[in-house]
Write a structure and sequence with these properties.
By secondary structure, this protein is an alpha/beta fold. The protein is built from 10 helices and 5 strands, in the order E-H-E-H-E-H-H-E-H-E-H-H-H-H-H. A 5-stranded parallel β-sheet has the order 2-1-3-4-5, sandwiched between helices.
Length: 214
């Protein structure tokens, strides 16, 4: 189910992240937060990517710990790629590391210090409620579209993409196939997930060898 806000945090800040989530949801704004919203026996990476893809804003609990977290960096990178608004909620007076600065340098910051945090939670909730009233964030579920692609074709494309980005290719192909208007559109969407023009060209060339079934 789509949620309004994706909560990103490092393990060391879990207590604060869940406390913040309770305050936000108490104001009627829905949140997705791990591990609470990950189904038992599910693929964690797939669940996180899906949650980021369907959210409209990411709130990042920003601290020295999250600054050094590879998982947080991957979540922020994915959010930027998907065009999400990212709100760093700084619980410590630290600046982003070089790996995060690239993604967060243009973002609005909200400081959550000094203590107590309740006034800062209140400001955060007010900001999110304004965002929610400006745009209807949660989209009602719709009937699944009729598949346009043969499963064998998608498996071939997945193998092509996995050569560049690994197992996460399965999740990205499934998501793109549900939105693409045709094979060219599908390849273009997936190529945009790659970092370099040369990789995008090679991926597209490889996909041209796949002939869609009639």
């Amino acid at each position: 189910m789509a949620r309004d806000v994706f909560i990103s945090y490092s393990q060391a800040d879990q207590a604060i992240a869940h406390e913040m989530t309770a305050r936000i949801e108490g104001q009627g704004v829905s949140c997705w937060i791990a591990p609470r919203d990950i189904a038992p026996s599910s693929d964690w990476a797939a669940e996180i990517i899906d949650a980021i893809s369907t959210a409209r804003i990411m709130v990042l609990v920003f601290s020295a710990s999250s600054n050094d977290s590879p998982q947080v960096r991957r979540e922020v990178e994915r959010a930027v790629h998907k065009g999400l608004t990212i709100l760093p909620f700084r619980i410590e007076e630290v600046l982003p590391s070089k790996s995060l600065e690239y993604f967060l340098s243009a973002q609005h910051w909200m400081d959550a210090f000094p203590l107590p945090r309740e006034p800062h939670y209140a400001r955060l909730c007010e900001y999110l409620k304004k965002k929610q009233s400006a745009v209807q964030l949660t989209v009602a579920p719709s009937a699944p579209p009729t598949p346009l692609f043969d499963a064998a074709d998608l498996r071939q494309i997945e193998r092509q993409l996995a050569g560049y980005i690994g197992p996460v290719a399965r999740v990205l192909v499934k998501s793109a196939a549900s939105q693409a208007a045709g094979m060219d559109d599908l390849v273009t969407r997936l190529a945009s997930e790659l970092d370099t023009d040369s990789d995008r060209r090679r991926f597209a060339q490889g996909c041209r060898m796949i002939r869609p079934r009639a």
